[in-house]
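Appendix B, record 7
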Amino acid sequence: MSDLSSIIITFKLALTTSVILMIIGLPLAWWLARPSSRIFSQKIKPLAEAIVALPLVLPPTVLGFYLLIAFSPDSWLGSSWLTITGSTLAFSFAGLVIGSIIYSLPFVVQPLQATFAAIPEATLEVAGSLGAKRWQLFKQIIFPLSKTGMISAFSLGFAHTIGEFGVVLMIGGNISEETRVLSIAIYDHVETLNFARAHELSAGLIVFSLLLLTWLYRNKNNRVGFS
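C-alpha cells (predicted):
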C-alpha cells in the first residue's frame, strides 16, 4: 500500500510539475529563442539562459538545501505561505512541486527554445505583413511547427520529475502518503535490505523511461523523415 501511494504521488507530482512548466516555459523559451534588437534584451538573455541551465550542473542537494532555507517559516516565502495556508511549505506536496519546477526547468525550456529557434523569422514577418494577429500566428504557424517539440518538452519534464531524488528528499523528506515518491521508496527498500522490492520498482522505472524515450525518438525521426 505504501508503494502504491508513492507511485500515485510520483505521477501526480510529475503531471502537475510538467503542466506548470509548460505554462512558464512557453513564453520564456519564445523570448530566449527569438532575435531581439533591444540592447537590454541582448545583454540579459545570456544570464537568463544560465539561470535556466543552472540545475543541470548544480548538485541536487545544493539546490535542495537552499530551497529548504527558502521554505522555512523564518523566510518571507515560507512565512507568507504559512500565513495564507496555515501549513508549512517545507515537507509538503506543494513544496515538492515548487522544487520540481525549478529542478526540471531546463528539461522543458531548452527543447522548446530549440524548437522555436528553428522557426524562420521570415515566415512570421510575411504572415505579420499580411495582417495576421498574434493569436493567428500561434495557431496557424507557431503551434503546427512546434507541436513535436512541445510534446518532447512536456515528456522530458515529466520523465525527469519522476526520477528526482536529491531535491525531493531535501525539501519533502519521507512522509508516507504525502511526500514519499518512488525514488525515495526505492532508497528505503535498499536501506532495509529489501532488494527484491527495490528491484521491482527500479525495473519498472527503467521500462517506463525506456518506452517513453523510444516513443519520443521515434516521433522525432518520423518528423525528420517526413520533412
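Remarks on this record: DSSP finds ten helices and no strands in the chain. The mean pLDDT is 87.
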